[in-house]
């Protein structure tokens, strides 16, 4: 690593663990696992992206926006892999954060700064002097660092790199304005160093005004990617794959491509709805009735949920009720525990716990 240090430090792993509280590698691995081979590669060839990556004097912020379900997080995972494989010199670095609405208590500006710093460190190499000083200042990790000290340390470490890439997916997911105000100040100060910042968000995010002077790109579900996803999904269901022929498969793909409004979420709901039919006649009828209206599509999915077995229908409706009335985004564990509480009980019972797969299957694509 291209950083002056004080020599090998036996507590390097402890320092990194002290700083890093996120599970970004798990989230990244999950997104990589669901990304089909060769999908999303069109984005890597975009001139704006290549310029941001490789130009000697680029515009240091690249903002990508897209509606929910467009595939922003999957594209982000592809960008992270590309950067990690393309910039491997000791004077280059990559750090990334997947903002999670289910973990807002952890994703504060302090935590995010600490996570970015942790990803720039290497447990097999000596720690940079500013990091060691920070660690000692807080009694060798017994206390959490203050935001001012973290910001100073992060800026000092960043300046020692020739080129740095910070990737932040779903920055709008932080929600509360106070998080954004402090964080945007940090991001702006970082981009005055060697940091190149890649950000994704929804198009009409309140923080958009801070991105308008920088390169922008709108992410939509790419036609070839949606096609591959639909083919893969149909082939995964042996009974459905045997039921349809190539001509009907092509017809299904064309119709979903027309009605999905270039979002993976709509395409996923539509193909899952279609694959619940067990005869060619029902499939053909469902194709002709496939809605172009997202609201109508959701209404039809709710009707399909109600037509399931009583147990599955009740599970789905309880799940949707919990999510709709929650005062904040729920963790998976919290949702499972909530569903395990029976009327009259004050706490969940282990015998009532439901597997996550059963919850997702019962909701027919409305919960992901």
Shape: globular
Helical content, roughly?
Answer: 40-55%
Q: Give the DSSP E fraction (strand runs of 2 or more residues).
A: 5-15%
Rg from Cα? 23 Å
CATH superfamily of the largest domain: P-loop containing nucleotide triphosphate hydrolases
CATH topology of the largest domain: Rossmann fold
- The top-level CATH class of the largest domain is Alpha Beta
Taken together, the total number of domains comes to 3
* Strand line-up in the sheet with most strands: 2-3-4-1-5
- Summarize the main sheet: 5 strands, parallel
Number of strands: 5
First CA to last CA: what distance? 39 Å
Weakly predicted, low-confidence segments: 1-8
The SS-based structural class is alpha/beta
What does this entry look like structurally?
With 368 residues, the protein is α/β, with parallel strands linked by helices. The protein has three domains: 12-218, P-loop containing nucleotide triphosphate hydrolases (Rossmann fold), CATH 3.40.50.300; 222-307, no CATH class; 309-368. The chain contains 18 helices and five strands. A five-stranded parallel beta sheet has the order 2-3-4-1-5, with helices on both faces. Helix 9 (177-190) links the parallel strand 3 (163-169) and strand 4. Helix 13 (264-274) runs parallel beside helix 15. The longest helix has 16 residues, at 310-325. It is globular, with a radius of gyration of 23 Å. The relative contact order is 0.12. Mean pLDDT is 86; it is low at 1-8.
């Amino acid at each position: 690593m291209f950083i002056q240090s004080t020599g090998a430090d036996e507590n390097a792993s402890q320092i990194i663990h002290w700083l890093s509280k996120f599970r970004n590698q798990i989230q990244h691995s999950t997104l990589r696992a669901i990304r089909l081979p060769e999908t999303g590669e069109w984005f890597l060839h975009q001139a704006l992206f290549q310029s941001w990556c490789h130009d000697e004097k680029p515009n240091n912020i690249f903002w990508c926006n897209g509606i929910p379900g467009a595939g922003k997080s999957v594209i982000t995972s592809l960008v992270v892999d590309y950067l990690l494989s393309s910039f491997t010199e000791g004077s280059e670095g990559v750090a990334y954060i997947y903002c999670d609405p289910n973990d807002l208590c952890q994703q504060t500006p302090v935590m995010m700064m600490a996570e970015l710093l942790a990803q720039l460190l290497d447990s097999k190499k000596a720690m940079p002097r500013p990091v060691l000083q920070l660690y000692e200042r807080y009694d060798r990790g017994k206390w959490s660092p203050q935001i001012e000290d973290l910001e100073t340390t992060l800026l000092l470490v960043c300046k020692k790199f020739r080129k740095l890439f910070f990737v932040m997916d779903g920055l709008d997911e932080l929600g509360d304005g106070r998080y954004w105000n402090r964080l945007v100040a940090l991001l702006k100060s970082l981009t005055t160093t060697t940091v190149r910042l890649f950000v994704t968000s929804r198009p009409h995010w309140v923080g958009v005004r801070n991105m308008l002077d920088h390169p922008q790109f709108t992410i939509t579900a790419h036609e070839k990617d949606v096609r591959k996803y639909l083919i893969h999904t149909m082939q995964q269901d042996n009974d459905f794959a045997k039921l349809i022929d190539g001509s009907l498969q092509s017809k299904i793909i064309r119709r979903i491509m027309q009605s999905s409004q270039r979002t993976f979420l709509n395409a996923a709901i539509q193909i899952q709805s279609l694959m619940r039919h067990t005869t060619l006649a029902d499939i053909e009828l469902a194709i002709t009735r496939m809605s172009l209206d997202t609201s109508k599509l959701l209404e039809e999915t709710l009707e399909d949920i109600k037509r399931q077995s009583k147990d599955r229908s009740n599970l789905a409706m309880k799940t949707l009720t919990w999510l709709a009335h929650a005062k904040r985004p729920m963790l998976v564990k919290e949702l499972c525990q909530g569903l395990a509480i029976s009327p009259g009980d004050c706490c969940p019972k282990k015998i009532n716990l439901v597997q996550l797969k059963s919850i997702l299957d019962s909701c027919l694509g409305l919960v992901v």
